[in-house]
Amino acid sequence: MPVAVIVGMQWGDEGKGKIIDLLAENADVVARYQGGHNAGHTICFNEKQFVLHLIPSGIFHEDKLCVIGNGVVVDPQALVAEMHQLEETGINLQGRLLISDRANIIMPYHGTSDKGRESESGFQKIGTTGRGIGPSYADKIARAGIRICDLRDEAYLTERLRANHDEKQKILKSLYGTELPGFNSLLDELMSHRETILKYTADTHIFLRDQIAQGKHILCEGAQGTMLDVDHGTYPFVTSSNSTAGGACTGLGIPPTKVDRVLGVIKAYTTRVGEGPFPTELSDADGERLGKVGHEFGATTGRPRRCGWFDAVVARYGVHINGVDALILTKVDVLDGFKTIKVCTGYKYKGKVFPDMPADPGVMANCEPVYAEFDGWSENTVGIQDHDKLPQNAKDYISRLSDLVETPFMMISTGPDREQTIQRESLF
Ligand code: IMP
Questions:
Q1: What is the pLDDT, as a whole number, of residue 48?
Q2: What domains can you pick out in the chain, each with its CATH number?
Q3: Can you give the pLDDT at residue 380?
Q4: 129 CB near ligand 1 (under 6 Å)
């Protein structure tokens, strides 16, 4: 089973960072396939907490190689800052980090455009991270983007940046009255990171092809989650990349025939950051408690996350869209002490129950969730490592979730630390 894709099953923040860090112990390579520094993967060990935005969550294992794939959009300043931060904590990156020469670059004008559209335009506000993700992917698809490989050729880079600068200057000025920094300052900023980035740049699909040929174990790391996927999520309230499992193939150059396993990471309840429909959202004391106990604040922006009950419609959809073989359930301990726990099994809209995901955002935004209720447990489950030691009601809850989504849980997380995990099956 050399290649496994790890995908978020909800609206991101399922705890993928911890899980990938843990699974990386038995892997050789961790390769991130989409998104940018909008992601925030939190990893805790040795009583310390680290938040990664761009660099794959295997970096804390000294003998693992980490790849930033072609499907990622890279902000050079954010990348170099993250690299320095890791090096300052004693993590060696030399020979361990590979950045795809085909990855697109996020430029400062992408951030300006992202924030401008969020605050000024007639479009619905998405609640983006403001990091320029959407405009950067838009340029990529429009074939106007600047790629990491362009850093190798100063003349070509200058020409490409000049065309972009001229175009964006006009657009941003007329739409938002924003004055862009001068062309030379943008070029100088880019050039200041050039040497550092090029030291780590590689044709990563060739590297991955060779690793696969050698039978090495590769974890493909997804960012965000299924419901934020630009094609399959709650459009338009999504991110601008394919966070679902298929994104691993296009975002890394790994052929679909080489993917052996897909694992879905899913939280025992649901959260969402930013705007958009969220059928099981709670605006009562239960929601407040999930947010407080679960420390539900964005790892990238610090925004409080909206909280709600587990949504089996979302989970079933994620299993189907991603072809999930097994699930990893996180944050079960956050439900300790709830008298009753609810799970949404369908959406009721205009008298009809939707057991599957509707495409129309109006249905999701205005539906009434159909709930199944479970008795909670009063015992503390934090740090439990043995499934048999879970309270009976917790076991019943987990087993019922598994039935509802027709997929087994191979791992259950009972706290943020590596050790706070029930491992029922190993990956490789
Ligand atoms: P963008 O990716 O910054 O364009 O934001 C689009 C939507 O995705 C917004 O609702 C963000 O809050 C959400 N989003 C982006 N990255 C993450 C993440 O890593 N976790 C959760 N939500 C995210």
A1: 83
A2: 3-101+200-262 (3.40.440.10), 104-197 (1.10.300.10), 266-423 (3.90.170.10)
A3: 97
A4: yes
